[in-house]
Amino acid sequence: MSLVGLEQGIEQGLERGRQEGRQSEIRLILRQLTRRVGTLPTPIQQQVEQLSLVELETLGEDLLDFAHLSSLEQWFA
């Protein structure tokens, strides 16, 4: 295997790991939100799925203060 091929393989592996980590974060946040405020409407779920990793981390902290779905809706506003 050439050095270029090895570097490409490493980069692909790292990217796959980042994607899997982000998907895990999304699933966790959605479960936490559902437990905290109840069933989430599909548009809200889709908004969560579109957040960046930094935004997901922020939401993960902020959702601890949510009491109702309206709190989440305000967070997105």
Description:
Helix 1 (3-37) runs parallel beside helix 3 (53-62). It contains four helices and no strands. The radius of gyration is 17 Å and the shape is elongated. With 77 residues, the chain is an all-alpha fold.
Descriptive labels:
elongated; 77 residues; single chain; mainly alpha
The residue ranges in which pLDDT falls below 50 over 5 or more consecutive positions are none
Order of helices and strands: HHHH
Could you estimate the helical fraction of the residues in percent? Answer: over 70%
Judged by helices, strands and strand pairing, the structural class is: mainly alpha
Task: State which percent range the strand residues make up.
Answer: under 5%
Average pLDDT reading: 88
The rough form would be described as: elongated
Query: How many extended strands?
Result: 0
Largest sheet: none
Quick recap:
The protein is mainly alpha-helical and 77 residues long. It has four helices and no strands. Helix 1 runs parallel beside helix 3.
SSE layout and pairings?
Blueprint: H1 3-37, H2 42-49, H3 53-62, H4 69-76
